[in-house]
Amino acid sequence: MYTASAQTKKAPAKKAPAGKSSAADIAAGQDLISKSDCLTCHKLDVKIIGPAYKDVAAKYKPTDANVALLAKKVLEGGSGVWGAVPMSAHPNLSTADAKKMVRYILSVK
Ligand code: HEC
Questions:
Q1: Is the CB of 39 inside a 6 Å radius of any atom of ligand 1?
Q2: Which of 7, 44, 75, 76 gets the most CB atoms within 10 Å of its CB?
């Protein structure tokens, strides 16, 4: 006899697992970056004034701690990690937007 197993196992996965960024945040971050001045100093895969986003993504895992650290760096500017050239501060960005930008950067392969 045919027995249908009506299992509905899939729970909706709303939140990205720890150490991962949600697709929505990554897409929003990419959009924010395209509207800011980031791309005058950063390219995806070549170092210009700032490091290539691909190199930044290779250096940092997208953990909440790294995202918070790098978002602070974007807001406040600074130097010494990739060289002596400083990144300008971006005081007009919100922390939330800076975090989305960083989540996008850390997703670049
Ligand atoms: C005036 C040029 C310039 C602009 C504009 C700029 N950056 Fe940078 N960025 C740099 C430089 C230079 C560094 C390397 C700083 C260092 O060595 O500590 C850097 C580093 C970074 C890092 C890595 C920081 C670290 O500590 O490893 C991230 C992430 C980053 N930038 C994101 C952004 C985002 C997002 C924007 C736009 C909101 C932006 N940058 C705009 C020049 C710039």
A1: no
A2: 75
Per-residue pLDDT of the chain (109 residues; tens, 9 = 90+): 665 555 555 555 566 776 789 999 999 999 999 999 999 999 999 999 999 999 999 999 999 999 999 999 999 999 999 999 999 999 999 999 999 999 999 999 8
The residue type of 103 is R
Residue 15 and residue 93 in contact, taking contact as beta carbons nearer than 8 Å: no
Residue with the smallest CA separation from ligand 1 atom 40 is 38
Q: What is the pTM of this model?
A: 0.89
Tell whether residue 90 is among the known ligand binding residues. Answer: no
User: Which residues form the domain of 35?
Assistant: 23-105
Chain position carrying tokens 């100093």:
41
* Total count of domains within the chain: 1
Judge whether 91 and 75 are in contact, CB under 8 Å. Answer: yes
Is residue 75 included in any domain, yes or no?
yes
